[in-house]
Each structure stands twice: as structure tokens, then as C-alpha cells.
Amino acid sequence: MKWILSVCLVFSSGIAFSLDRLEIRRFSSYFDSNVVEINDEIKKLGNSEEEKIKKGVLYLSLAIKEPPVEKASLEAIKILKDFEKKNVDRVVKAHLAMSYSLGARDDKNPLKKMEYSDKSIKLFNSIVAEDENDWYIRFLRARCFAGFPDMFKVGDIAESDFKFLQNLYENKKENINPTIAVRVYYYLGEFAKSKKDLDKAIAFWKKAVSIADENHITNDSYRKAKARIKVFEE
Amino acid sequence: MRYFIKILVLLLIFDLSQGVIINKIKITGNSHTDSSVILYIAQELKEEKEYTERELSCLAIRIEERLINTGWFYNAKVYVAPSSKGEDYRNVVIEVEEGFLYRFYGGNAYGGFGMDSVSGKGGGYRIELGYNRQLLRLEKLFPLLYTKIKGNLGNLNTTIYSNDNKEINIQSVGIKSDVFYFLNPDFAFYLGGEYRKNFDISYNYLFDSYYPEAGIVLDKRNKKFSPSKGYYLDLNYRYLSFSYHRFGIDGSFFVGLIENLTFATRLIFITEDVNVPYLNNPTLRRTAVRLNVGIDGVRANYSDSIGTSLVQANFEIRWQFYTIKLFSMINTIFEFTAFLDAGKAFGDFEKIKEFENYAIATGLGLRIFFDNPVFLPVRLEAGFDKNFKPAFYFDVNYPF
Is A206 at the interface with chain B, CB within 8 A? Predict the structure, then answer.
């Protein structure tokens, strides 16, 4: 009987974690969807492992919105933390790390804020250490770390991740989506601005806008880069 | 070689670096603070005016310091950006992040509450209540006139000394007001005065005290709490009861020795030509040093010293050894300090050289600044007071 159960467990876990990276990244496409659409999708989901991952990513999508949906980040943490120790794709763990960082932003309890920040930084760094060339994970880390307050001293890590992505994009070493490239150049502009290198910052924002215009992208990074050029240069 | 030196001298005398013109000055992030108030703080910047690159970058740094020193913003940055108008043009972008404007503080037997930049217009108020004071402080800024009015109204308890050197507590109810005219936000002339009615603790009327005053204030400190560079200078003249002259200098100087280590000093000099009974009441004698000149606490203050002039020096070595952002929000700085104070009241300038009557205090202190956004400076000091007795002091205020 024990054997049968074990075989069943192995078989079921095989199904549960059959989600490949492309499928998980497909869930992330909801990052650009509207709140109603995401909520409708959440309602359709059940409690299988696959659906739980999708649900976690969808809650994360709600937490990313501006303004964020209340408690969405905490809901994402609750769901995705079950996968922290499991043998799942790094992207799932990266989404958990993102949820932690947004939880740090949203939680009212200062001790929880510190705990979530710490967990996010440690988890992201450990996933990146597994494969430093995993550009998508480094993109997620960079985007997340760019939003951390100075006291956490992760701004330099975010900047080096964005530079790594810039290098890959410009040398066409990886098939980096133009939507991601727009974000990369917008953030590189922000880092140059924080160092008061405005010539460089404006050049990065212009690059972000030109990539977006070529590819008909109108995401928030495009809008922000355009607004920055208007304020600083015009 | 001579030509080379001449050219070098010319370059030093005339700044020959290329000039740039400000195209536009833009302000972002100010949802509460009025743009005219921010422009007043950056009043050296004018659109279509030419500056050297160096001038512009120095001004940008100073304006950032001024904006942060107001305490109205979590963060403030001044950017000089290339303009699309042409190579010689620059845009100046002032980016601010609005801060927490309520203030809480306190001192020896009183607590204070107030608000800065009410309605975003740069004015403010403070209410101080406690055993020794019930005061309302107001200030109003008129940015387009480069003028600020400051006023105090209320009761203040002070101690004065009778002819036989006995302490007498008085209640002093009155009004003080000054009008400041700013040549730039670091440098102001002021004119004003004070009128007070003085009572004993049973509210029996004693005498009136009043004076007009004029002065100059120069403030080049880089930070509000614990500056690491710059200076503050206040030259003040008062015409006491339209009969006696009083001249005062209050200067503080700050030098950063190495990172986070600062040498701070404050020098005070006051002299009055009051060597006859100043007050109408013959049992009381007003001297220059009856006022609480000096610093509260362990420090050597001079309220019980007698003389018509006073000289005082405070020295501190300040080491900011730890900084943390509490609750991811409140910049908190821990500072260790070692201090030495020395001062003397005297009637005869010849006696300034005699060391025997100098009051000296020394000790160690810990300061915790709950800085931006709450601006709460906590002060703990332990040491030997001017009577060489061990003493301990706690306060919610900043010495200088």
C-alpha cells in the first residue's frame, strides 16, 4: 500500500510541477492587465498546485498595480510561500521574493516590514546565485530592488542587473522582449538621474521611448520616461 | 613662464569658464508647498540669467541644503539638466517629496507642539506649555517681498537677582516681534522689539521691560541638526528701556574633521552699559547675565553670574556613529559627543584675562535625532557641572 501511495505521490507531484517557465511567465502577462480582468481570472481558479501558482502570480499582479489592491501582496505571499522549499522553477520563487518586497511596502507592522524586506533580499540573492546568467530572474530582482529604500543598500545590485540586461539586449545575446527593454532603459535613466548625470539619464529615457514607439508599447515605464524627458529637457 | 603665470592669475581672477543660461526652472512633487515658497528658497536662480557651470552646480547644492533644512520635505533634489533649447541652455528641476509638518519638542519643564509651512505658504506656529512658560510663537513668510515676520506672545518664567544677589522668580507676560528682510535665504537683516510686563509669582506687578532691536543673521549651516559644515552668526543690538545699549554676538561654527566626525563650537559675547539700577523697582537689579544665557543642563550656564558683560564658549566633538531608518520611515541618527564649556560674567574688561572666575563644565553626551520626518532631537548628557558636581540631563531639544 505504501508503495502504491508513494508512486501516486511522485506521479501527482510530477503533474503539479510540470509547469515550465514559459507557462509561469505567461501568468506574469497579467502584470499589464486591469484589476477587473485579474479578479475574474482569480475567481476561476481552483486549488491544484498549478492553479495555486497562477493565483499567487495574479495576486502579485494586483499588488503591482498603481494604486495597489489592498492586501494583494500579503495574499500572494500566503499562497506562494508554500513553494519556497519545493522543487519548482526559480521564477516561482522569484515571484515569491517580489511578493515579500511588496508585502514589506504594504504591511502596517514595522517588524513585519523588516522581516519581509529581509526575506525578499535573501531569497532573490540565493536564486540569482544559482545561475547568474538567468536574465529574467535578474530582471525581476532589479525591478524589485530598484524600489527598496536606500537603507537596504540594494540599489547597486539593481543597477548592475539592469546593466547586465542592457548588455544582453544591445548585443542581442538573448531574445529580450522589448517591453522588458523599455523598463530596463527607464530604470537605467533613473539610476543616472540619482547620480545627477542628466545627459546620460536623458539618453536612457530617450532610448526607452524609441524602443516603445517602434514596438507600439505604452506601458508605465514608457509613460514615465516620456514624462521625465518633458520635465528635464523641454 | 611669466606669461604662463599671468594667464593663470587672469584665470583665477576672472572665471573664464563658459557661461550657461537657465532656460526654465521647474518644480515637481510639491502637492502642498506653494511653488512661490520654493522659488523664494531658490531665489538666486532666475530664468534667462547667465551663470558659470560651477556657479550653477554650487547653487544647486546650497538650495538642496536649504530645502532639506526647512524640514518640510522628506527629500529634495536640484538637477541641472541640458535643455532642448540649445547647448548653452540648462533647465533647473527642483524635485521635492513633501514631508511631515507637525513638530513635537520640549525642554526643561515644558513641552512644545507646532506646525510648519501651514497651507504650504511657509509660515508656522508653535505652542509651548509647561511650568515655566505658556507661549505662542508665530511666523509668516512673504516670499515675494523676501520678508518674514516672527512673533512670540505669552508668559515666560525667569529668574532675576536682587541687589543682595537673592534669586527672584518673575512671571513675564508680553510680546516680541521681528521683521526679517532677506538679501538671500542665508542672510537677513531684522528689526523688531519686545514689550513685557513683569510680575512676581503672586502676580504682583513689578515693572515693565521693553526694547527695540536690530540685527543681522547669517546662516550657512548645511544641516538643521548637527551640521557638519558651515556657520551661523547673529549680531544683535538692543536699546533697553530706551536708555541702555546692549550688543550681542552669537556665533556657531562647524568643521567636519573626517566623515561623521565634527568639531562644533559656539561663541557668545554680550555687553551692556547697565551699571546702574536698570529697573524702576529699586530692590531689583538688572544685569546682563540675569537671563539664562548658556545651555541648559549639565552645561555651564550663567544665570547666577553677575556682571555687565559675558563671554562664553562651548566646544563639542560630535561623532555620528550609527544611522538607521526606523520603521523604514524615520531617519534616526545616533551621535556621541564630548563637550567642554567655559564662560565668565564680568564688569571690567581687564578681568576677562583672569581665569579664576571662569565657569567650566565638561562631560559626555548621547544624542538621538529622530530626524526627517519628525525632527525630534533627544539629548542625554552626563558630566561635571560648573560646580564640579556630577550631573545628568535629559532634554528634547538641541543645544546648538
Answer: no
